[in-house]
Structures are given as C-alpha cells and as structure tokens.
C-alpha cells in the first residue's frame, strides 16, 4: 500500500467493520423496496382472513374446534409465505444481485443470518396478523347462535399464536430451500412438492409419518385447541403431535434447510 | 494495490485460470486484456472472493477480500451490467448496498448524480437500457469512494459519448492515486486509458507490460495483441486458414 493509498483509506475509514446490523439493514431495505413483497403479504393475509370468515359463516356445529376453523386460511397462506422465502434468496441469483450483495457483505454466514432474521421478522408479523385477524373475523362471522371463541379459553391463545409462528417457519424453510436450490422454479417446486403434495401421499401410505409433515403439523398440531379426535375413523387417523412438539419439529425443518443452505452458500461459487 | 499470486481455478476439466500472478498498482489504470473466454472475468471473481481459487490467492491492500472491514469503501467492483433486482429502483438498490457498509443514504444520490442517472433514480432499474445499467453498476462501484476499482468490461453498451466519459472518469480516479483495474477484449479501447497492461490467454499470463512497451515492437498495438494472444485463443475461426492470417491485421 502506498502512502497515498493509506491516506485515502485512513481519511474516511471509520473504526470497526461491517456487522450483523449493517447486513440486516441492507436486507430490510431490499425487502421493503420491492412492491412484490407487499403485494404478496397483503394477498396472503387477506386470503387467510377470507377463508376464516367463509368457514365461520358456514359453521353449524358448535361442538367443533371453532378456533381451528377460524384459522383454516393459514394453511393455504403458507404457500405464499414459503414462496416469498424462496424468492428472497433465489431472486438474488436470477438477477445477478448476489454478486453486488457479496461485494458489500462477503461473509456469507452473516449475510444469510441477516436475511433469515429480517425475512423471518416480517413473515412472523404477517403470520400473526393473519392469524389474529382471522381468529376474530372468523369468530365474528359465526351464525346459527354459535358463540365466538375467546382468547381466554383453554388453548385458544396458544393456537392463534402458533399458527402465525408456523407461517414464519414455513417462510424460513422456503428461504433455506432457496439457498440450497438457488433456482426459483426448482426451489418452488421442491417447496410445493415437499409441503403440499407429499404429505397426503405419505398419509395414505403411512399414517403415523404424516403427522410429522409441515402441513399436518400446522393444521392439526399448532392451530388446534385440543388434540384432534378422529371418532369412528380412529384406525385410519394418525396420532398428531402436541402443539409444542409440532412447533419443535417444524422449527427443526426450517433450521435444517437453513443449515444446509448456509453450508452450501459458504462453499459454493456465487 | 491488487496482488495476484499463483491464482488457479478449475471448472471440472477446464483450467480457467492457471497459476496467474500480477500486480495492479495505485495511481495508474491497469488494462486487463484477453480474448473472449481467456479467464478475465473468472480472475475478477476470484479477486472478489465470489469464486474460491483452487490454489494461490489475491490480496487487496494486503488483505483477502473476505477479510476487508468495509469492502465497499476499500474496493469498488463492476462485474456485470445487471447485478440488481429489476423491480427495485436504482436509488433503493444503492441505498441497500450503502447501508450494508455503513454509508449514508445521501451518498446514493451523489453517485447517481456522478454517473448521470440523477433523473432516473426512482425508476425501476429493470427498465434501464444496457448503457444505463452499466452506469448504475459504476455508481455502485463508486458508493464507498474506494481506493481500488475493479471493472469488468465497463464500456459495454455505452455510446461513444459514454465511452469517452468513462475513460476520462477512470483516468481522473487513477490520477487521484487510486488503483484502477479494467478488463476488456478491445485493445484499442484499453490503450486509450491504461498505462499498464496485463494480458492473459487460456488463464495464463502472456504479458505484464506497459502500453508503450507493447506497441514498440510491432506495427500496431492491435498487431502486437493478436500476435501475443493468437496462440492461446480459446475459440478460433476456421477461416481464413491460419497460414493466411500471418500478415498484419488491418
């Protein structure tokens, strides 16, 4: 380094170095400056609420899990959360932006952590909004003299909170898949195949394994106030995980996808 | 200062960069020349830590790229014209990168102004022409006012006035004491702005010289370049036959 170069460097180079908060701020600006982010989230939340209200209007059985009914829109909404997670990663590759990103933040583990934290926070906020609004709107839509469930009833607050959390975890699962597969179409295919197509097939072959698939976890473990009762079909019905075990398994999936994604991201050429 | 030592990169059976060593020094524009497919872009990607070398290393100001404390303030890079999301505005793209290295948002507007995109900053960058995309890439490279600049084919897509403008800009940046490393497959273009030349073919160093020295022994700089790279060109036309190509190209 020449004296002049040293001078240029020293003249305006503040102490320290880039850290997680810089990377997170960068990712937040990226996420919020795309109109598609907001469109996707608005459509997702509105769709979930719409389904919850529709189910509420058509509910005639006061003995069912009314909370689970109101949250019926969360499962279809997960698809968009997962796809948004995938695209948060893969759009960097399809556009070539990843090269610019990595010239600002070369430490890839830090970058992926910042992406996951920022996207995860946004997905959690959207998921909880969808979940809580669905719960109240679905309850308010109940007719036929059925009383709306209240958050204070046993298991209700837990179900509403965890359904929103599931939304965030599927988004992070998508982000991890995006880091592993890198190609938007292929990653979305893996996500849809793994989360939506495989579980019913698995369920048809091995009932007990189906309980461990993301969609069954969210529909039957996280979003319920009481364990699912299968009545007459008990023999065909898997033993669903408890809410907290389901949350743990789902978090494990997201962590595994992010972990493998991180491992590959740190080693592969960008 | 960019120091490249024994840099080697293999893609499957192909040796893209082969034990390459050279320096790019401060205060000068160093032209990085080679035919298409000669390994210029791969070398730049290796210097920036985007690809992992199989052997050797590259250092910038004495440090590996991934060890830089504020990368954008130490190295500005333009690798490909469209390294941005098409749905994001130019201004937001630059503001995001700036935030990643603790650079204020105002600097994004400054560099947009500097590259002549002040009026287009709020438009979606996906609508940009190739020339505008190049300018946005250059704006990103200048964000951190870095002492080292690495530009891969920066005149691609620019009109003659734009080419003149970038040439003057790079010369003035070098005159301020910065290291400016510019790749091109157009010898004529590089000769107008560079003092030093690093010439490669099939990933190997063919010459590390000055523009004056290179043109001294040949009828023209282009003739010298073609003679140097002819033997190692990755893709050669079958016609005219090699024997007919011996004469000096016009």
SSE layout:
The complex is a heterodimer of chains A (270) and B (250).
Chain A: H1 3-12, H2 20-32, H3 35-57, H4 66-70, H5 74-95, H6 97-104, H7 108-140, H8 156-181, H9 184-205, H10 207-210, H11 214-222, H12 243-267
Helix pairs in contact in A: 2-7, 3-5, 3-7, 5-6, 5-7, 5-8, 5-9, 7-8, 7-12, 8-9, 8-11, 8-12, 11-12
Chain B: E1 2-11, E2 14-24, E3 28-33, H1 40-47, E4 55-60, H2 71-74, E5 75-78, H3 90-100, H4 106-114, H5 130-142, E6 148-152, H6 160-175, E7 179-184, H7 187-193, E8 196-201, E9 204-210, H8 211-216, H9 221-230
Parallel strand pairs in B: 3-7, 3-8, 5-6, 6-7
Antiparallel strand pairs in B: 1-2, 1-4, 8-9
Q: How much strand of chain A? A: under 5%
CATH topology description of the domain at 2-70 and 144-245 in chain B: Rossmann fold
Oligomer: heterodimer
| Coarse shape of chain A | globular
Share of β-strand residues of chain B? 15-25%
Which regions of chain A have little confidence, pLDDT < 50, spanning 5+ residues?
A: 7-11
Q: What's the number of helices of chain A?
A: 12
Strand runs of chain A, count: 0
Task: Detail the poorly predicted runs of chain B.
Answer: 246-250
Name the CATH class of the domain at 2-70 and 144-245 in chain B: Alpha Beta
- Order of SSEs of chain B, N→C? EEEHEHEHHHEHEHEEHH
Radius of gyration of chain B: 18 Å
Instruction: Provide the structure class of chain B.
Output: alpha/beta
Overall average pLDDT of chain A: 87
Kindly state the percentage of residues in helix of chain A: over 70%
Query: Ends of chain B: how far apart?
Result: 36 Å
Q: Give the CA-CA distance, first to last residue of chain A.
A: 28 Å
Strand order of the largest sheet of chain B: 5-6-7-3-8-9
Structural class of chain A: mainly alpha
Integer-rounded radius of gyration of chain A = 22 Å
Portion of residues in helices of chain B? 25-40%
């Amino acid at each position: 380094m020449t004296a002049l170069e040293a001078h240029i460097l020293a003249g305006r180079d503040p102490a320290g170095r880039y850290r997680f908060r810089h990377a997170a701020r960068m990712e937040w600006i990226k996420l919020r400056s795309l109109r598609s982010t907001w469109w996707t989230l608005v459509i997702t939340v509105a769709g979930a609420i719409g389904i919850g209200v529709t189910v509420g209007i058509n509910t005639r059985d006061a003995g069912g899990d009314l909370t689970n009914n109101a949250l019926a829109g969360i499962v279809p909404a997960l698809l968009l959360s997962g796809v948004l997670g995938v695209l948060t990663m893969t759009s960097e590759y399809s556009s070539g932006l990843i090269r610019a990103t990595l010239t600002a933040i070369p430490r890839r583990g830090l970058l992926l952590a910042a992406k996951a934290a920022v996207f995860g926070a946004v997905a959690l906020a959207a998921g909880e909004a969808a979940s809580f609004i669905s719960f109240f709107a679905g309850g308010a839509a109940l007719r036929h003299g059925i009383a709306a469930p209240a958050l204070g009833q046993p298991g209700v607050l837990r179900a509403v909170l965890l359904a929103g959390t599931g939304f965030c975890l599927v988004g992070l699962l998508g982000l991890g898949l995006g880091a592993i597969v890198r190609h938007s179409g292929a990653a979305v295919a893996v996500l849809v195949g793994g989360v939506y197509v495989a579980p019913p097939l698995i369920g048809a072959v091995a009932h007990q394994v189906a309980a461990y698939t993301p969609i069954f976890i969210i529909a039957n473990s996280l979003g319920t106030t009481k364990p699912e009762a299968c009545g007459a079909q008990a023999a065909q019905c898997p033993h669903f995980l408890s809410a907290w075990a389901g949350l743990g398994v789902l978090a494990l999936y997201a962590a595994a996808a992010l972990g493998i994604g991180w491992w590959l991201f740190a080693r592969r050429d960008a | 200062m960019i120091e490249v030592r024994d840099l080697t990169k293999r893609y499957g059976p192909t040796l893209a960069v082969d034990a390459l060593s050279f320096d790019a020094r401060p205060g000068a524009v160093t032209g990085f020349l080679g035919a298409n497919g000669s390994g210029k872009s791969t070398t730049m990607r290796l210097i920036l830590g985007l690809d992992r070398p199989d052997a050797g290393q590259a250092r910038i100001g004495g440090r590996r790229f991934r060890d830089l404390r504020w990368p954008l303030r130490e190295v500005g890079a333009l690798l490909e014209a469209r390294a941005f999301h098409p749905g994001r505005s130019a201004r937001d793209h630059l503001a995001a990168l700036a935030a990643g290295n603790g650079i204020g948002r105002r600097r994004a507007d400054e560099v947009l102004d500097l590259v002549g995109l002040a009026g287009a900053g709020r438009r979606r960058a996906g609508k940009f022409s190739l020339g505008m995309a190049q300018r946005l890439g250059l704006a990103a490279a200048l964000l951190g006012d870095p002492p080292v600049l690495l530009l891969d084919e920066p005149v691609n897509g620019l009109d003659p006035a734009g080419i003149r403008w970038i040439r003057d800009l790079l010369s003035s940046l070098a005159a301020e004491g910065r290291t400016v490393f510019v790749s091109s497959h157009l010898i004529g273009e590089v000769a107008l702005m560079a003092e030093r030349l690093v010439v490669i073919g099939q990933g190997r160093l063919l010459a590390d010289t000055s523009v004056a020295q290179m043109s001294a022994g040949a009828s023209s700089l282009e003739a010298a370049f073609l003679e140097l790279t002819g033997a190692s060109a990755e893709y050669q036309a079958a016609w005219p036959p090699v024997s007919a190509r011996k004469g000096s190209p016009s």
